[in-house]
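Re: [ENG-882] Designed sequences occasionally contain unexpected residues at chain ends

Forwarding the minimal case from QA. Structure tokens:
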């Protein structure tokens, strides 16, 4: 598996799924984080590990902590400035306020 930096396309893919799960959580619908992670690894994030996707989900929680975040992806303190900026850009591109 690659340890290279995440591309904009990868960040957008993971943020998109995070937002879908967040909307389901807000609506009281069940979510299956393991299935979403598996789906991402079978698709656009095939070069990433389960753990790296989970860690990135926690990074997203950190960036949007002032709003709601997904249960089970608690915000983490160590989000690199470049990762924070990429997540914020992806959130904007995906229309999240």
């Amino acid at each position: 598996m690659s340890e290279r930096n995440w591309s904009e396309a990868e960040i957008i893919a993971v943020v998109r799924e995070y937002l879908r799960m967040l909307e389901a959580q807000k609506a009281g619908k069940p979510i299956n984080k393991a299935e979403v992670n598996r789906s991402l690894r079978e698709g656009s994030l095939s070069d990433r590990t389960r753990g790296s996707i989970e860690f990135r989900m926690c990074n997203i929680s950190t960036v949007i902590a002032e709003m709601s975040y997904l249960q089970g992806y608690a915000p983490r303190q160590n989000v690199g400035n470049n990762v924070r900026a990429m997540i914020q850009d992806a959130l904007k591109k995906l229309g999240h306020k």
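QA comment: On inspection the terminal residues look reasonable. The mean pLDDT is 88. Proposing we downgrade this to a documentation issue.
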